[in-house]
Amino acid sequence: MAILAKNMEFLGTETAFEVLARAAELERQGKEIINLGIGQPDFKTPPHIVEAAIKALKDGHHGYTPSQGILPLREAVSRDLYNRYNVEIDPDLVMILPGGKPTMFFSILMFGEPGTEILYPDPGFPIYRSMIEYCGAKPVPIHLKEENEFSFDAEEVVSRITPETRLIILNTPGNPTGGVVGERELDILVRGLAENPHTVLLADEIYSQMLYEGRVHKCLLTYPEVRDQIILLDGWSKTYAMTGWRLGFSVWPRNLIEKVNRLAVNCHSCVNAATQYAGIAALEGPQERVHEMVAAFDERRKVIVELLNQLPGFSCIDPGGAFYAFPNITKTGFTSMEIQNKILEEAGVATIAGPSFGIHGEGYIRFSYANSIENIRLAARRIDELLDGTQAS
Ligand code: PLP
Q: How many angstroms does the Cα of residue 95 sit away from the middle of ligand 1?
């Protein structure tokens, strides 16, 4: 029998894909499932981006590219960051990767080992903890609380930095909560970081363009005093409805870029060439579709929050960003997992139980509102009918 490396025991997973598989199975059995589980825009990639990829293939861009990404794309990323945040980023510090995920994978691999500590948000993206445990580092959860609108207390985070803390992971706007970390907290965190030069911060800003009600995203790269301690993760998946293209970027401190490039060479060599050309078209082309998508998400956000607050036992605060609502379901009398399974199997609505995002997710359930208003209304009606008069034993 094959003998696996010990660390394989500690590798977690993303339950979203399991829920997706179960939903697909129920559909095959003839059930009509409304998918509010998956975290991807339900829009199509804008056509000019698709055309750019087709053109690149027709023009013969079939081969390997530099592992760091083609220079015109890295320059386009640099211009995009300048336009959005007024920061000057050397394209040599930009890394093009197959999605946002490899940036977290590589950063955690780079810093995590037994005897080190990594702080990460809980509830948060499940891959953070999975990779921390895989590397043998100590996972130190930062509890994101509903009463703080799922932001965190930066003083508390700073107080938890020890000489062993190699990495802090921050995600704003956040998955699964939609919470946004305000500027005051970021200022305090940055001051704490500056006092701890041995600690690096991974800023997962994949939802940076999805903010509502006048909120403005504050990118961690706009703090020059900690520029050498910040890894920025962002990408095309959510902003341009390109999840399946597998394209993301990150910006690295100068002393780390060669290291991440080396990991890329060892892992995937480079992102496929045509996709990189599509990435240029996305950043340099018209942005109307992005604004339309965000406006559509905002409309759905208002609808879903109102409907969730009317469901028996549910209460839901306004998410400030991303495309997730994270209602509190403790008053239903069911656990998160019971609710997730019940509404999938009996009401045909796919969602994700809070504990899939960490222990502090118990009592909550994630709804992705990357679906039509019509489907959101239908889902709420079905859940309402199911829960009305139902009592947990
Ligand atoms: N970071 C967060 C917080 C996410 O929610 C996701 C995807 O759901 C990612 C990163 C990964 O994005 P990608 O699909 O580009 O790898």
A: 16
